[in-house]
Amino acid sequence: MSFLKLQRDKQSTDNELVSSFRLSHNSEYIGELFQRYTHLVFGVCMKYLKEEEASKDAVMEIFEKLLIDLKKHDVDNFKSWLYSVAKNHCLMKLRKDKSQANHVDEYGKDLRVVMENDEPLHQTAEEEQELLDKSLYEGIEHLKEEQRMCVELFYMQNKSYEEVSEITGYSMMQVKSYIQNGKRNLKIFLTEKRRSP
């Protein structure tokens, strides 16, 4: 990459770099994007994985994931989308790690807050937790991007409306609306999932 092109890329917006990558499939555009937000991704990984080496590995895995995902998905707000990708990547790693049962328990508790439904399921506590955890991931993936982002930040990260607004760039009114609609859609999805054979 020439010096002039490198300087031009550094001055490009996130959306311009994403568009250039989608057109050329040149990974250098993603390299510039990732350089801008490596600190953000590493911070998210440390928050969930708690270990520096594991977080560094996750950062590289997420970088490789971007090369695939950005070819398939239209992204309007790269920073917010990347935050969501990094968070979900870490949660999936924790879910696969049986030694991280405490994280799964906390996740299940958050689900009960979202559901606001104390109706018991006819399973053991362990089976119920596993079902809720799996269904929550699926349900969140079915939400629209703006709803998913706001619900995750508000319920899973315990962010205030003000903090969610600051992170996402949405207005307070939009944040409250996305959370309310996302919560309703998630509850509908989980209720239907529970009733299905």
In words, what does this structure look like?
With 197 residues, the chain is mainly alpha-helical. It has two domains: 1-96, RNA polymerase sigma factor, region 2, helix turn helix motif (Rna Polymerase Sigma Factor, Chain: A), CATH 1.10.1740.10; 103-197, Winged helix-like DNA-binding domain superfamily/Winged helix DNA-binding domain (Arc Repressor Mutant, subunit A), CATH 1.10.10. Helix content is 81%, strand content 0%. It has ten helices and no strands. The protein has helices at residues 3-11, 14-24, 27-49, 52-72, 78-96, 101-115, 125-142, 145-156, 161-168, 172-195. Helix 3 (27-49) packs across helix 5 (78-96). The radius of gyration is 18 Å and the shape is globular. The protein starts with a helix and ends with a helix.
**Overall shape:** globular
Major sheet details: none
CATH architecture descriptor name of the largest domain = Orthogonal Bundle
Mean pLDDT: 76
Q: So, the CATH homologous superfamily of the largest domain?
A: RNA polymerase sigma factor, region 2, helix turn helix motif
